[in-house]
């Protein structure tokens, strides 16, 4: 199920403005890849190009290649809707559908892919997905309550359950813990460690310790100044990146001596 | 207001007595409080005054004996209920038909403006729709009677020929001064308000939820169904009720288009079957005096009660699933 992504010479534009320039990287399967860097350096933008969510913004476009399992995500015959069904995403703020119950939230993506699902299969899938997101024991007695009745951390795990219910190949996480308290953050981090045995995970984070804790490989993005494009500075094993990075800027950023 | 701490004025040190500060800083606040409470009360007082007037003036007709009522020349019934019943039926039928036509159309237009159309087209389309609201109802009446009725004639002929086995469409007689024509005109009249409210609600659908749907691999239509329509549901219901309120009370257009009748009839294409309360009052009022005025006012009271009930029903629908509304 899990797949690797090879990105080569990727440029992201918002209309004429070059937001991210010249990114080439390999995202390994069954591992956690962390994207770190200062605000505005294009890491979130880059993350969104991996499931073509940047196209939601009018005028956004991409040059270059992102090849997943031999298939270029940007080939002309590829439907972005199909890409998003294979590359799931978890957002910065928990966003369960407020008009749906917990169970309906989990099944939301599945109902899009495959409209007919038997009741038994559906409840099995709800259970396995919620278990996969470490949420089952907390919500099993109130599956028909609205998703918005949960706490922030639970809502975020519900969103993870919703994303993994469609069995994606890759899971993108855009600062998934930035709106959560430390205990919920820990729960999500533990979950990532479990999920990487099955999924390719890419996470954007502002929290250096988090990147060090959860990721196998880390990519550092930086920006030369306002109006300049963000660039990938370097990418390596997380342990290497945090102990002996090759580039001075990486070390400055990681050690807090930024700029 | 005591719970709110008063705004600090002039950056004075905190040594001052709290009570003194409160009265000083709270003057504008208190003035605003009186104004807003007064405005709120004014609505209640107005409503009570209208209700009181209606009940007071309708009372003679409501309590009159059958003999007295039969002295009114156009009163084709011996009881008040017998008279107002077909009117209520006609009013509701015309308004609900109008709603049935207008709501899907309005939701479609609102979605097109909020989620499909390029920005510039969306804006100008919005203006055009709003412009429909600026046309006086008497103009709609002229348009309906002089242009729409003859234009619909062939369509109605076809309907009664080929769909006549459905009782609804049986027995069309030209000219098309029937309840369906009136409903179509009403639908056009209530389209702007429903569209405008629905558009505003759809535009407020949280981007977060739209992106959640898209990231799950939803197409644009699926995204609209998952994130926009459920969010806008209560707004669309309130919009429809606003439209229904206008359709229920619409006088001039119905008066000019509909050939009146006082029957409980589902023949949508036959003339002389239905009449709405408002149009009936307008047509009878100039020659009414004494008890007949009371009778007309009593039908007005009935309309008032219906409108109130419709609004309460709408509120109830909205509150039923408020937990899932996204407001919490």
TrEMBL record, chain A:
Keywords: ATP-binding, Nucleotide-binding, Translocase, Transport. Residues 5-248 form the ABC transporter domain. GO terms for biological process: phosphate ion transmembrane transport. It comes from the Bacteria. PANTHER family: ABC TRANSPORTER I FAMILY MEMBER 17. NCBIfam families: 3a0107s01c2 (TIGR00972). This is Phosphate ABC transporter ATP-binding protein. It comes from Sanguibacter suaedae.
UniProtKB/TrEMBL annotation, chain B:
One of its GO terms (cellular component) is plasma membrane. The keyword Membrane applies. One of its GO terms (molecular function) is phosphate transmembrane transporter activity. It is found in: Cell membrane. Residues 88-314 form the ABC transmembrane type-1 domain. One of its GO terms (biological process) is phosphate ion transport. It comes from the Bacteria. Keywords: Cell membrane, Membrane, Phosphate transport, Transmembrane, Transmembrane helix, Transport. The keyword Ion transport does not apply. The chain crosses the membrane at residues 31-60, 80-113, 125-149, 179-198, 247-269, 289-314. Residues 1-23 are annotated as: Disordered. Belongs to the binding-protein-dependent transport system permease family. CysTW subfamily. Part of the binding-protein-dependent transport system for phosphate; probably responsible for the translocation of the substrate across the membrane. This is Phosphate transport system permease protein. The gene is pstC.
């Amino acid at each position: 199920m899990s797949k690797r992504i090879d990105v080569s010479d990727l440029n992201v534009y918002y209309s004429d403005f070059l937001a991210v320039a010249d990114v080439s990287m390999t995202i390994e399967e069954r591992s956690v890849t962390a994207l770190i860097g200062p605000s505005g350096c294009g890491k979130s933008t880059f993350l969104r190009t991996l499931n073509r969510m940047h196209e939601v913004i009018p005028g956004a476009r991409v040059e270059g290649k992102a090849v997943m399992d031999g298939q270029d995500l940007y080939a002309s015959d590829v439907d972005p809707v199909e890409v998003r069904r294979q590359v799931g995403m978890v957002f910065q703020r928990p966003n369960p559908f407020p008009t749906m119950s917990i169970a309906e939230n989990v099944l939301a993506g599945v109902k899009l892919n495959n409209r007919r699902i038997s009741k038994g299969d559906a409840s099995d899938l709800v259970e396995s997905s919620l278990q996969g997101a470490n949420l089952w024991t907390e919500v099993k007695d109130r599956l028909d309550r609205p998703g918005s009745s949960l706490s922030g951390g639970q809502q975020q795990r519900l969103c993870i359950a919703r994303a993994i219910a469609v069995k994606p190949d890759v899971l993108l996480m855009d600062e998934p813990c930035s709106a959560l308290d430390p205990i919920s953050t820990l729960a999500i981090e533990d979950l990532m460690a479990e999920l990487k045995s099955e999924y390719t995970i890419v996470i954007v984070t502002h929290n250096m310790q988090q990147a060090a804790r959860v990721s196998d490989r880390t990519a550092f993005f930086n920006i030369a100044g306002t109006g300049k494009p963000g660039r990938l500075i370097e990418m390596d094993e997380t342990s290497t990146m945090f102990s002996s990075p090759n580039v001075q800027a990486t070390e400055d950023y990681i050690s807090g001596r930024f700029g | 207001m005591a719970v709110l701490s008063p705004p600090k004025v002039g950056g004075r040190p905190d040594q001052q007595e709290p009570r003194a500060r409160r009265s000083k800083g709270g003057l504008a606040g208190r003035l605003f409080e009186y104004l807003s409470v007064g405005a709120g009360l004014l609505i209640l007082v107005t409503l009570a005054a209208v209700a009181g007037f209606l009940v007071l003036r309708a009372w003679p007709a409501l309590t009159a004996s059958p003999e007295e009522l039969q002295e009114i020349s156009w009163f084709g019934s011996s009881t008040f209920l017998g008279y107002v019943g077909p009117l209520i039926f006609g009013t509701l039928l015309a308004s609900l038909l109008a709603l049935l036509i207008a709501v899907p159309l309005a939701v479609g237009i609102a979605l097109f403006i909020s989620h499909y159309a390029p920005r510039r087209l969306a804006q100008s389309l919005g203006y055009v729709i709003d412009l429909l609201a600026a046309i006086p109802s008497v103009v709609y009446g002229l348009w309906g009677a002089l242009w729409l009725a003859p234009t619909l004639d062939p369509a109605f002929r076809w309907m009664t020929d080929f769909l006549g086995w459905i009782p609804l469409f049986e027995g069309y007689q030209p000219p098309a001064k029937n309840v369906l024509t009136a409903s179509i005109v009403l639908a056009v009249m209530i389209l702007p308000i429903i569209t405008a409210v629905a558009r505003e609600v759809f535009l407020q659908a949280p981007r977060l939820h739209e992106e959640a749907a898209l990231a799950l691999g939803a197409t644009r239509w699926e995204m609209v169904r998952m994130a926009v329509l459920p969010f806008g549901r209560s707004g669309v219901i309130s919009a429809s009720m606003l439209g229904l309120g206008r359709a229920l009370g619409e006088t001039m257009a119905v008066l000019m288009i509909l050939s009146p009748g006082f029957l409980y009839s589902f023949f949508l294409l036959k003339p002389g079957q239905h009449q709405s309360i408002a149009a009936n009052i307008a047509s009878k009022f100039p020659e009414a005096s004494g008890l007949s005025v009371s009778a007309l006012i009593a039908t007005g009271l009935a309309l008032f009660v219906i409108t109130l009930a419709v609004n309460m029903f709408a509120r109830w629908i909205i509150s039923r699933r408020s937990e899932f509304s996204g407001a919490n």
